[in-house]
Amino acid sequence: MVTFDASELGNLVYLHAALCECLRLYPSVPFEHKAVVADDVLPSGKEMKAGDKVLVFSYSMGRVEGVWGKDFAEFRPERWLSEEAAGTKKKKLRYEPSYKFISFNAGPRTCLGKEMAFVQMKTAAAAVLWNFAVELVPGHVVEPRLSIILHMKDGLAVRVRRRDGVARHG
């Protein structure tokens, strides 16, 4: 079985983009409960008083056409990639403001473990995809079940087979 180490993960730009796209559409924490700390007025004109409770639905925010464009419902990792670097065919990750992509919270409350989470996700995904062919079981419907943590209603039915003649990595 081939494994990958952290020093190689920076080159897996498309995988990083695919993980961001997964988290945009299916955030691990689909909503958060917040409290207003000081009286304020939202851009819409809505007055908020200190102590008011606010629910932030990251699941819904990942599906707003005005934020993500007409293809908001499509799984499209390319939305996370910038143009090719000058003189190369390599794409780079595109910066998205933390208040647009809130899977790891935003601003001063951004998750301290965000980069470690990406290292772990990329390490696991790269090893699985290098060593195995994974495909959805035909006809299986993926339906989310909202709770504190986002789950799939009936799990994820996949077929996994070891890849034939997998070349040794490294």
Automatic annotation (TrEMBL):
**Pfam families xref list:** p450
The question of whether DNA repair is a record keyword is answered with: no
Name the PROSITE patterns on file: CYTOCHROME_P450
The record's listing under SUPFAM superfamilies reads: Cytochrome P450 (SSF48264)
One GO biological process this protein is involved in is: lipid metabolic process
Task: Name one molecular function that GO assigns to this entry.
Answer: monooxygenase activity
Q: What UniProt keywords are attached to this protein's entry?
A: Heme, Iron, Metal-binding, Monooxygenase, Oxidoreductase
Keyword Phosphoprotein present in the record's keywords: the answer is no
The record's PANTHER family line, in alphabetical order, gives: CYTOCHROME P450
Its family remark reads: Belongs to the cytochrome P450 family.
Recorded protein name is Cytochrome P450 86B1-like
Source organism per entry reads Panicum miliaceum (Proso millet)
